[in-house]
Amino acid sequence: MTIATILDARLVAILRLDDLSTAEQITDALFQAGVRALEFTLTNPAAPAIVRKMRDTSPAILSKKAVIGIGSVRTLEEAKLAIDSGSQFIVSPITSVQIIDYCKQNKVAVCPGAYTPTEIAMCWDAGADIVKVFPARTLGAGYIKDVLAPMPYLKLMPTGGVDLKNMASFFAAGAVAVGIGSQLLDPIAIQNRDWVKLTKTASEYAKACALDCDTA
Q1: Is 145:153 a contact under the CB 8 Å cutoff?
Q2: pLDDT at residue 214 greater than cutoff 80
Q3: String of DSSP letters for 63-107
Q4: How many domains is the chain partitioned into structurally?
Q5: Are the C-beta atoms of residues 144 and 156 closer than 8 Å to each other?
Q6: What is the CATH number of the domain that holds 85?
Q7: Tell me: the pLDDT tens digits for 156-178?
Q8: Nearest Cα to 68, choosing from 85, 51, 83, 48?
């Protein structure tokens, strides 16, 4: 169900925020925008507690209309913490077979990070549900197309540097989803607690992903 939701929405919103005091309002705004997969990163130590609370209280998550995960997972200990906190999927910036194995053992979806074709293949062969191609900023959509040419079975999610201007090119190249953080999370809107504006900005990304999916 978790991966199906991500593949259907084609978008994972990455919440890499220093302040999570308004996390509930942010998640509500994103869900209203049509965003259905949220990733809170471990760069903020409060992320596990937020995920645990959202699993228990968010109507969108409780009704299985949306999923929530934890990202920036780099060690086995962090993977254990994330899963114990109720994370429905794990995202890592690195290739770690140990993390993949642990997630598979616990039946939690896992999206490890990879950069080279060898790392990407290693992640997939180890059991990754989706491979996060990171950072995609310097690689570009052509790289995704080139990697998929000899390995068309891969499910790739470019992350880092993806925005409304280049998103369509990544999907056209064969990406199954994109991970987007700062471009989607309007920092001024969050600072001003302007949830209407945040919803408006996020909805542009959610609609763009859905539109590209419909026309692919």
Answers
A1: no
A2: no
A3: TTS-EEEEE---SHHHHHHHHHTT-SEEE-SS--HHHHHHHHHTT
A4: 1
A5: yes
A6: 3.20.20.70
A7: 999 999 999 999 999 999 999 99
A8: 51
